[in-house]
Amino acid sequence: MSATFVMAGGGTGGHVIPGLAVARELRARGHLVRFIGTERGMEAKLVPAGSFPIEFIEIGGLKRVGLKKTLTSLSELPFSIWQASRMLAKANPAAVFSTGGYVAGPVLLAALWRRIPVVVMEPNAVPGFTHRKLARFAAKALVSFEETLKWFPPGRAEVTGRPVKEEFFSIAAKPRSDVLNILITGGSQGSRTLNRAVVESWPLWKKGSVRLVHQTGQASYEEIASKFRAAGVAGEVKPFLDDMPKAFAEADLIVSRSGGTVSEIAAASRASILVPLPTAADQHQLRNAEAFEKAGAARLVPDSEMSGERLVLEVTRIAEPGVLEKMGEAARRLARPGAAQRAAEVLESFIR
Q1: 81-117 pLDDT, tens per residue?
Q2: Which of 144, 156, 263, 266 could serve as a FRET partner for 285 with CA atoms 20 to 30 Å apart?
Q3: Are residues 344 and 236 in the same domain?
Q4: What is the C-alpha separation between 95 and 350, in angstroms, rounded?
Q5: CB of 73 within 8 A of CB of 59?
Q6: Are residues 154 and 287 located together in one domain of the fold?
Q7: How far apart are CA 149 and CA 1, in angstroms?
Q8: Domain that holds residue 314
């Protein structure tokens, strides 16, 4: 039996991309899928590109936005809930699926008021603001970490992981060579902290010991690339890597922030050095990195402590015999294949 489902979640790619993965799985099973988002969020670009319909509501964030913006968002909330309620009445979905972000709040409140089942997917160790506040009302919660289960009512949460491209799971183990291949990525926009640390590290590497592949983000690319060519370090600098599974497959070690990338690191079975973004809402990147370090899959370096010298030190420690391999094995134990398929199965269970 086919049904309609509404997807809520947006603002950043980390909220939109998992929702799109589940939407594609639902569409492949013959269901109709609609999105609700904001015109300012990444969903306004990514959802139409995926050929899904989307409607927009007006709402802003409530976390770390300052008093004026918070008051504005609160004043918008009743109207945004009314907007979302009208959209849900028109769509008549079997369930609403949330991946978080500020747009999810009004949609979930409207769904609960209309007694529509709410399924949430929480990829972070500590749930975001919306999912945390509405946790007890969720019909089902799909999480990525065992530690996250405690935030939801007993029996209503399960560990499924975050949807990740299948190419990451098919990445083979990489035999150790004399040259350590290191992938540095601060996300599509780059990271000033990681960019600075990598530049500082260039003169500190033992000649011929490493090959660096550095995704800088567009804003810093020209400046770093021109200096890189003169530094004599093996590797390449790119503003953006189009084929990230290929980059992961060629890497022995990954240096990155600790948002949604951690799910890809786990799927690829790669050791990592994680530098949490200190301004991330609810310190979710720090909690993700802590979970990976506790599992033996990563080294956590606070943003304030990351430097070229610290980067070289951490890489040297990980390069000790057997350490790199053990960290990769620990990362794979955190991987959860089939997250999108499981989410679709859960949503289908609410078809009346």
Answers
A1: 999 999 999 999 999 999 998 889 999 999 999 999 9
A2: 156
A3: no
A4: 6
A5: yes
A6: no
A7: 31
A8: 167-333
